Amino acid sequence: MKFKVVVTPKKAVLDPQGNAVRDAMRHLGMPEVQSVRVGKCLEIDVAGGSVDLETRLHGLCRDLLSNPVIEDYALERNGMAPKTTARSRSKRR
Amino acid sequence: MKFAVIQFPGSNCDQDCVASINGIDGLRAELVWHKETSLRDFDAIVLPGGFAYGDYLRCGAIARFSPIMRAVVSDARAGKLILGTCNGFQILCEAGLLPGALARNQSLRFVCEMVITRVEVADSAFTHGCAEGSLLRLPVAHGEGRFFADPATLRELNAQRRVILRYADQQGRVVPEANPNGSVENIAGICNREGNVFGLMPHPDRAADERLGSADGAKIFRSMVETIAGQRARAA
After folding, report:
1. Burial of B157 by CB count in 10 Å (0-12 exposed, 13-18 middle, 19+ buried)?
2. How many domains does chain A have?
3. Phi and psi (nearest 5°) for B178?
């Protein structure tokens, strides 16, 4: 089973890399570009398909694949639209 | 007194930490491989700088799951002094022992320079040898050192006097020009609510001898020694 996890910086977090890309796009003839956010995309191939697979994947999305303090994530299965997008949580002290 | 210096695959300031700790009277450092599971024999724990696990995914993201981190977390809960410098600070945040996160420098550049930090809290376990408002000259060397915390966390950090160090200029003014990485409110180092876990982006381990341009970093290690000695005296 194939999954895709897209991790992006939270809106409240300054994304200097995104701003640099936005400026480059404007300079290259697309002044319409309002904003760019740069994140990362993880393509994950999983063998089998136990019932709690997605729940466990969400757990790892929060604990390992993203840092909920500064990032949001979206988990997609087989290229389907994401069912849930994580928001912040408050386990950190 | 014995300090543990944790060695992750990719740590590169572990020897600096050992050397600077061993340079302090009555203090001895020992390297502990990240696959170990106990830190029982140590009075304090240091998480050194470097690029643990290549900083893959995010700085500290994988290191926080190293076997030794269970012992670090449980010893932190038990009140042992824990110091995280640079990559060690990033690991402590990822592990949830400190709030906030360290994001990519605002300049998008790796900064490697001597900075000035102002001591905001003079009675912390890590700075009580320093007067409030005194300045420490310490080097920084990082690409991801921009401290970020949401407004509620920042209010809490300030209200509870948990911001230990801020980047400042030579006159001790906390100004944007003195901020090497874009950290919110020029924050260079913070501690947890209990005050026994301290993380900072600058390197006290690289400034513990005048021959290295500054010996201010030794003040932090000495302060830890005094704190532990004080705790022992009270317990006796």
Report:
1. buried
2. 1
3. -90, 0
Residue in A9, A16, A91 closest to B108 by CB: A16
B117 C-beta neighbours (distance < 10 Å), count: 28
Alpha-carbon gap: B99 to the closest alpha carbon of chain A (Å): 5
Concatenate the DSSP letters of all residues of B81-144 into one string: EEEEETHHHHHHHHTTSSSSEEE--TTSS-EEEEEEEEES-TTSTTTTTS-TT-EEEEEEEESS
DSSP state of B210: G
Q: Residue A16's domain is classified under what CATH number?
A: 3.30.1280.10
10-residue averages of pLDDT along chain B (236 residues): 98 97 95 98 98 96 97 98 98 98 97 98 94 97 98 98 98 98 98 98 96 95 96 92
Distance CA A2, CA B20 (A): 49
Cα dihedral A11, A14, A18, A24, rounded to 10, equals 130
- State which residues form the domain around A38: 2-77
Going by their DSSP bridges, the two strands B28-33 and B2-7 should be labelled as parallel
- Which residue among A16, A65, A93 sits closest to B106, beta carbon to beta carbon? A16
What CATH number is given for B2-235 in this structure? 3.40.50.880
Interface test with A, best of B89, B148, B160 (most A CBs within 10 A): B148
Q: Is residue A62 part of a domain?
A: yes
B103 → chain A, closest CA residue: A70
Strand (E) or helix (H) holding B16 = helix B14-22
Note whether B57 contacts A91, CB cutoff 8 Å.
no
The ipTM is 0.87
Query: Is A6 within a domain?
Result: yes
What pLDDT does B219 receive? 97
d(CA B224, CA B152): 29
**Does a structural domain hold residue A61?**
yes
CB B179 within 8 A of CB B167: yes
Rg of chain A on CA atoms, in Å: 16
For residue A93, being part of any structural domain is answered with: no
